Amino acid sequence: MSEIDALKPAADIGGPCQPLLTVEGLSKHFALNASLFGKASVVRAVDDVSFSVAKGEVLGIVGESGCGKSTTARLIIGLMPSDAGKILFDGEPVGPVLSLSELRQRVQMVFQDSYASLNPRLTIEDTIAFGPKVHGVAPPQARARAHDLLRKVGLDPALFADRYPHELSGGQRQRINIARALALAPRLVILDEAVSALDKSVEAQVLNLLIDLKEEFGLTYLFISHDLNVVRFISDRVIVMYLGEIVESGPVEALWTDARHPYTRALLAAMPSLDPDNRTQEAPISGDPPNPIDPPPGCRFHTRCAHAEAICSARAPRLMATGGERHLAACFMVDPGSGHSKAVAPKVKETVNG
Amino acid sequence: MTPIIAIRDLTVCFTGERNVNALNGVDISLAEGEVLGLIGESGSGKSVTLKALLRLLPPRRTRMTGSIHVAGRDVMALDEAALEDYRGGLVSMIFQEPMLALDPVYTIGDQIAEAVVRHRGVSWADGRKRALEMLEGVRIRSAKRRLEAYPHEMSGGMRQRAMIALALSCGPKVLLADEPTTALDATVQIQILLLLRELQREMGMAVIFVTHDIGVAVEISDRIAVMYAGRIVETGSLRDVVKNPSHPYTRGLLHSTIHGARRGERLDAIPGAPPRLDRLPPGCPFAPRCALADTSCVQGDIAPVFVTPQHSARCLKLGNPAHARAGAA
Fold first, then answer.
1. Is the pLDDT of residue B24 over 90?
2. I need a surface site. Which of A76, A233, B76, B242 has the fewest CB within 10 A?
């Protein structure tokens, strides 16, 4: 077989210990029309966000609407320019060393709306073969690649290759989108609410498919979702965002059993119960998430937080270690020197629980 | 006691280039003050059931048979004038998208007042007074100021509260809720669910709550009905259905809901997809996806089999040993 470079995953550079993706100080601010409000307002969609994704890892990003999770994804893949920050792919900075076209061969994305993200005038085969052709693969090879990928996502090429997106169900379309994303043999796939629009039984099928494909192609996932059940199921590590900032990150089980940020705890407590004998009795927090236009000063969560004190509106807490491995939280209550009256309490609790 | 809602053998068929059998013999009986969670996937007929109850389906393209009685009234026989009293007066509905359900060019206060004046025949001033009461009732902060707000000036959660206030302003005996929390953020969703639970108890309304999210259904329902391909395939008390799901589809649905599923393990997903409603297979509509199905499943209508007097499922395999084993697995 005469394999072309564009159909092979990019070679590993830094070895297994080097993160596949490193994001440093990423920011995106949208300026709003000044004349309308008298003064210029700024939407701080993503504000100084830093994290890394290890090779072979599934990193989940959760948060409510307007928290900046989708904007973060779009900045990483270069769908919009960032205002500040660095993105490194396997150690190579995007821009100076790695061109956008090289990056897009290594990073691909699957979106929520399975219909809007497919070209209605292209057949399924043309859709999947499009990327490889753009990257210089000869049409016959690109077509063979498309058929191969269709089989991999569980659709018979003989039945589906010549169909158009409108002839397929939502679940089938999302399989096509996954096949399209894999056509260039990416190393990282960003899944932005990729299963959110699917019915539960179909969602389970697609999640199974994602697990199988990850295994088979040695993929790394950045999995963005508002559904905490799905994120817990598929992720190794999770980042919680609130109004453009990371408020907590850590291994998925640590977050679920020992969440340190009050917002993470509220998100978890807000999940509907599945036990008829143990329904939710009280809403963990009141009100809606505030508008990301001119967010509150200090800790952005202080307006909804039951533990807020004077310091919380005066200064912004930094992400810091909580004691658990790779478990970080941005809350004065995990910072013993912050002056917050409950600052020491969680530490004590941790030693008691062992 | 006579039920407040009695639906018997309701079928709905949308006619046109192809005939879509959206509902195929639905029976629902709901007591006063009872909350029924209607769950199922898209196309299973949940929303069509609610729209049929309000006679909102386009009459020229819809063929309906069966009977619907609400508070003793024959809904199928209501004329246009009677329907206008019925909708919003006796039975009210809330939707997934309040932005589409509310009128963008009138203030919230005026929209509620208009409904109250129309149904209660009170003065405009009294209607506005009722609007304020309602906004306070759904716990909108600084309700007085919000009376003058337009829908676009409110946040998603507040709009949903305003729509609930509007729907309940004329004291309906039945509230139909079509996925009212689906579009909301998690921390807001639980607030709205708790609010609805509280208002339902206060006002003693019967509620049919449509959702695809079993967790949401658990939070709000007394009873559950599971729909598939335009039929109710299982119904029973919340506890019975969740703790002892008896139809293979309900089991699959509960298994594929990944509450507490273990990380890295494959999910127990139902294979295939629901049948097309213009080409329904004979017999049990779930048979093509069901591991237990055999030739007896694909002929004739499947009648409900009772697990307990209050809990039934339309499955021929109920009670046979293979079924019990599949349930234990």
1. yes
2. B76
